[in-house]
């Protein structure tokens, strides 16, 4: 029991005792104590009313009172002052945050889970064309109509950033990220990456131009070297250097061709077209070419469902799949086995290329698809590798919304798997499995 309540009780008991004594003295032992109780209750009600009025009005002055009521009122005043200070601090923090977010060069838009805008900064007006406060409570997809943007927001593909052209200025390229926060809120951030994009484009153009410029002189050199090499009257001592020059020029030609192929794929905008591609027939052709390359040194098995068609670009897919199969042949010693399969899986379809070859150490796997990355340079050169095959595979798969998975261990062979999503697969009625080599 608090001190205030104890003294309140003491006062009430003393008052009641006084009323009883006075009642006895003046011969009214019931009426006087009853009157005392009524007066006491009235006083309590008056104080309760003061408290309620004080609670009702934030700006009301502290009412005067006494006893335990005064203690209670002072307590309420203290809590209210603390609360006010906290609110001021919170408002300042929110203001600070908004000012900082407003000053950011990146566009920031706060969204409810259903895509309605709750707040946006100044850069969002410059980069995305959104206005504050007119556009608050509007669906963002009704204001930014770019199909890639709408699809990104509606399908909630927030793990990956999205590049798209600013709706305000078609010369500005934006990189968009959506970060979920709190309960069912999203923060959309858009950054101007025009300069980076231009640099990247310059790099691609440079590689494409250099490769293109090198192609003609190399073809001429190779032509002369071939003639000289085959000349029966040529000096015997020149035979070996000519042979080596021809080999190196051939290698350069292959690199230039692969560089050109890679830049053609890289320079294609957006996703690959959705032509119907018969993968089983394509793999049959690749298997035949691989058998020629192997020259009977390997067992090459193919199992492919002709029911599953891919929606994509034939030449690009041919290039990617043949690179995987030819690698399997080149990095598998004589007597090894190569298995190619094309089949349905849970979320779409997969192409597997499995070999019993030299395998790859785990620490190389994350870098395999980089341009010119080779595990063993000498070996790659010996088999005529350009170091660009898997980079081509990666880009082709990206354009087909597919992913590459590599499982391998040294001396244990490798498995390269391309996973294609259901949206890229067309299933035709007649089931027929193409298999060869077994
Ligand atoms: P390359 O033209 O050198 O074969 P790729 O880009 O096709 O270039 O492959 C990169 C590297 O990955 C190769 O140099 C090789 O070391 C390794 N590699 C690719 N496929 C296989 C495979 N099936 N088995 C073992 N190593 C492989």
Verbal overview:
This protein is an alpha+beta fold. It has 4 domains: 3-96; 104-192, Beta-Lactamase; 196-266, Orthogonal Bundle (Helix Hairpins), CATH 1.10.287.130; 275-436, 2-Layer Sandwich (Heat Shock Protein 90). The chain has 12 helices and 14 strands. It has helices at residues 3-25, 31-56, 67-103, 122-128, 140-143, 147-154, 194-230, 239-267, 279-294, 314-330, 377-382, 389-399, and strands at residues 107-112, 117-120, 162-165, 173-181, 185-192, 275-278, 299-305, 308-312, 337-345, 348-355, 403-408, 414-421, 425-427, 433-436. The strands form 3 sheets. Strands 11-12-10-9-7-14 form a 6-stranded mixed sheet, covered by helices on one side. A hairpin with a 2-residue loop joins β9 and β10 (348-355). α1 (3-25) runs antiparallel to α2 (31-56) and α9 runs parallel beside α10. The longest helix has 37 residues, at 67-103. It is elongated. The model has no long low-confidence stretch (mean pLDDT 92).
Low-confidence stretches: none
Shape: elongated
- H and E order: HHHEEHHHEEEHHEHEEHEEHHEEEE
Number of helices: 12
CATH first level of the largest domain: which class? Alpha Beta
Bound molecules: adenosine-5'-diphosphate
Binned strand content: 15-25%
Strand order of the largest sheet: 11-12-10-9-7-14
Number of strands: 14
Specify the biggest β-sheet. Answer: 6 strands, mixed
Helical amount: 40-55%
Mean pLDDT: 92
CATH architecture of the largest domain: 2-Layer Sandwich
